[in-house]
Amino acid sequence: MEFCPGCGKKSKGICRDCRPQKEIKVRDINIKFCSSCKKYFHRNKWTEYTDIEEVVKKIASENIKEENISINPILPEIRMKPGITEEAFIEIEIDGDISYIPANLEMTYCDKCSKKQGEYFEGTLQLRNVDEEMVEFARSFFRKNNVFISKEKEQPKGIDMNVTDKKRLQNIGLMLQRKYGGSIKVSPHIHTQDRQTSKQVYRVNLLYEAPEFRIGQVIKVDNKVLLVKNISKTVSGVDLATGSRASVDLKKKEYKILRPSESRISKVHPGIEILDPETYQSVPLRNKKKVQIGEKVNVVSDRGVYYIL
């Protein structure tokens, strides 16, 4: 401020006339605020706030070792930009006498926001063979858990995400595998050495590779037409020909994805038939399901043999 907060005279801070007439016991008032989120640093931790004036008043009351005082912060126009220190004043009334003491309000970043602003990261999520739904599933998980994606890089078959929490990184890998199937591979590697503890600091790469097909799709493998229910190291689901559960290891095996088509039920007795999606002729189904004539259904075909889904 270029004027005295007490009398308004031109002055760099409190003028001589407005300085306390009696000695006031007070510790320096220096408060750090995060310029990105509503937090201030107090007692070695970042704490949320709603009113900056109330924060200044609270800390001033803790730092002024006087009784029966009235405290009124006088704040400048606050610029919430990192690197800026605003000078404020605290009006103090003791037994009818009014005095003013300075306070410094420093704008910076809290620990979490400093990671977000910089290129800090603890691990990389490598997504391969994924679609936009899977990518957004990972982004949403990180947002909900206050994990920042410091960098994204497109890759030929997917995307890499540098993230600020390696524990959450491993969580999302398992969640992706549980929801969409596929495989994960975790590769920790030494990044640096902590200067204070001398311990090795690790970064983690987690590779998630989605299968070419998804849960709910139909594949043909080992002469089985399989409605996929789970994908991990093996693929399991329902054998549409028999209705029984089946499991198969796809390593070194050829498979074919059977795309569904829409059709209508043309007959229910003595057996269920549909209209062939290409010829519109009535053809039988290999498997059974409770349906009605004219009902729209999805089917897959394996060399002219139809299965209802």
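[next item in queue]
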Amino acid sequence: MKTEIAVLAVVFAILPALFLSGAEETKVGFEILNDDAPIEQGDTLIFKLSDASSAKKSSVFIFGKHYYFNEKGVAFIGASIVQPSGEYTAVLLDLTSESESWWFQFFCRCCNCRKLEVLPGQFKNRPAANKFNPTEKQKDRRIREGEMFQAVYASVSSAENLISGKFVSPLSNKNIGSLAITDPFGIWRIYSRAKNDQEQHRGVDLRTGKNVPVVSINSGVVIMAENDFLREGNVIVVYHGLGIFSLYAHLSEIKTAKGEKVAAGQVIGLSGATGNETITGPHLHFAVKIYDAVVNPLKFIETANKYLE
């Protein structure tokens, strides 16, 4: 037993030396631009490389996945609404060096990394009197629609940046600061005292009149444009590159098609009250995901625009 322990000690003493030169050669650094405020579930983090010319060969590894940089050396990282609170380490990887990547991920002593803490989100509860109770047939339909969403998100493999300039409001007649929120991001809708009789809102509901033009928040490609989903009604998903998706639901009319390239501010639909979810009138359900991380969509726009030219 003592011999085995001694052997392991030698192995772990030698391993750093084997990889040390590769780790020390990494001269490109990075910083978290918006770490001056507490990071909560649902927030967006902005990482920036010290040398933008290394953007194509670098990634940040955190929350179990790689995030990629745009041509300016900026990466958008989502602390998902369901990301467990706690301390995490963000590691800068050189994608051209397998040994360096392996060294960073498993030993991370000399590597280029930053520690950060994700705090619990300050999400409120709201009693919800009317709950949509689907029939068995509707439950099956909902499962199929959920699988369609997953397939659409999984179909995008490109980390290419499609963003052009700053993000805009999803409603053509309102700027970000004047949007009327009827149901905020992250709120818990409580239907009864039963633990499983509640759900968390994974987007934001914006009050609209009927048939108000809904626009793409930035340039990208339409990856979903479907009518008559059970809960979302008529729904659109736009991919903006770098793992960023925007979703627009309950539309009265879709004015785009899957595969179409759209520009920031381009009309893609009209607001409405479609879908079998309890609808209180025309509104837009607006959501943003960064890869599979569900983030606060309005806070995402506000944060991203501070660092976009």
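[queue empty]
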